[in-house]
């Protein structure tokens, strides 16, 4: 009897072990992830950092096979592929999808409004994260913001731009719906080009100047070889956000614990990206200077005019789409609320101090 019992228990233990192993094997998901960025652009490092961190934190439950942009499909197709579930996830810059909903524009960047710390505060503590879910959720996706870069370089080219008067009649590569509207009111003309087309467009004189990203990204893209002048600051994108689109069905298939690990990885990458970008921007600026590129800065009157026009565009754009209005209403409300602490902590504050904000009541009327 004892021997039989012992054998039975041994067999039971082995069975439990097999069931456990089987459950573990079944629990591990395998995702394919791509991005809008090719290997040649440094912004891909933000996507790669998150995917690598997820594989370390949640490797037993989820493994992500990351593919550079353009290796699976053109970058313009990753939204549809993620929405339909052809792939489980893809890294993006939300502004690329503004043609679907103008609300994507402020989720990506703002003209002369948020800086990098503002985006971080707003996403983490002032309701921004929930708005990303609301906008992307309309397209069967969950969204994890995991990248922030501070203000972009500004316009670079072979023609000097030292004041707003110099923008008049200039054809300038610029991304973003609201950004283009501001430029046009300042006298310039928006030209839409992919990142990979900018170098040759400047070299051949197809455009008078161009913006793309931060100084480190721009330098490593080779711009110092073809530009002579650089106009700062990059008012058109005072900060930018990047993140990962996740197919909702793929997300729902994960356990709550695994979902939390993906969020933790996103938060960690968010902080890492801001410091990484600022370091790279510092080194990129030094390299542009060493290459002989002449840097100019807009005067105080010009900056005040840019803010005035940006505010007008923000309010008018908000009134074209209730969801767009909802995002900007949240952003401006944050700036007003944060000012209670921000403006009494100068010069140690971490956000922009404003004398002139977009009209919150006008935006509210458009909700």
UniProtKB/TrEMBL annotation:
The keyword Signal applies. Residues 1-27 form the signal peptide. Keywords: Signal. The keyword Acetylation does not apply. This is TRAP transporter substrate-binding protein DctP. It comes from Halomonas kalidii. The gene is dctP.
């Amino acid at each position: 009897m004892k021997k039989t019992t012992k054998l039975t228990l041994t067999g039971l233990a082995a069975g439990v072990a097999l069931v456990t192993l089987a459950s573990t094997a079944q629990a591990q998901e395998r995702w394919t992830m791509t991005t809008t960025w090719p290997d040649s652009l440094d912004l891909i490092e933000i996507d790669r950092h998150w995917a690598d961190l997820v594989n370390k934190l949640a490797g037993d439950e989820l493994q992500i096979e990351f593919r550079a942009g353009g290796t699976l499909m053109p970058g313009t197709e990753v939204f549809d592929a993620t929405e339909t579930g052809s792939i489980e996830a893809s890294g993006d810059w939300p502004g690329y999808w503004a043609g679907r909903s103008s609300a994507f524009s402020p989720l990506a960047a703002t003209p002369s409004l948020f800086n990098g710390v503002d985006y971080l505060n707003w996403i983490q503590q002032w309701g921004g994260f929930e708005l990303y879910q609301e906008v992307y959720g309309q397209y069967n996706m969950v969204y994890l913001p995991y990248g922030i870069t501070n203000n972009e370089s500004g316009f670079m080219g072979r023609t000097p731009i030292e004041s707003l008067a110099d923008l008049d009649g200039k054809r300038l590569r610029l991304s973003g719906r609201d950004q283009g509207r501001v430029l046009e009111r300042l006298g310039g003309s928006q030209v839409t080009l992919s990142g990979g087309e900018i170098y040759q467009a400047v070299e051949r004189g197809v455009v008078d100047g161009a913006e793309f990203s931060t100084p480190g990204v721009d330098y490593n893209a080779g711009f110092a070889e073809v530009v002579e002048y650089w106009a700062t600051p990059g008012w058109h994108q005072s900060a930018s956000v990047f993140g990962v689109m996740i197919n909702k069905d793929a997300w729902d298939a994960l356990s709550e614990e695994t979902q939390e690990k993906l969020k933790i990885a996103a938060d960690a990458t968010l902080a890492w990206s801001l410091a990484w970008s600022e370091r790279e921007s510092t080194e990129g600026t030094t390299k542009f200077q060493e290459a002989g590129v002449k840097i100019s800065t807009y005067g105080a009157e010009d900056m005040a005019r840019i803010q005035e026009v940006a505010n007008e565009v923000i309010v008018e754009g908000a009134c074209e789409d209730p969801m767009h209005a909802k995002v900007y209403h949240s952003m401006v409300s944050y700036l007003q609320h944060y000012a209670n602490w921000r403006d009494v902590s100068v010069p140690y504050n971490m956000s922009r101090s404003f004398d002139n904000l977009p009209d919150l009541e006008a935006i509210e009327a458009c909700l």
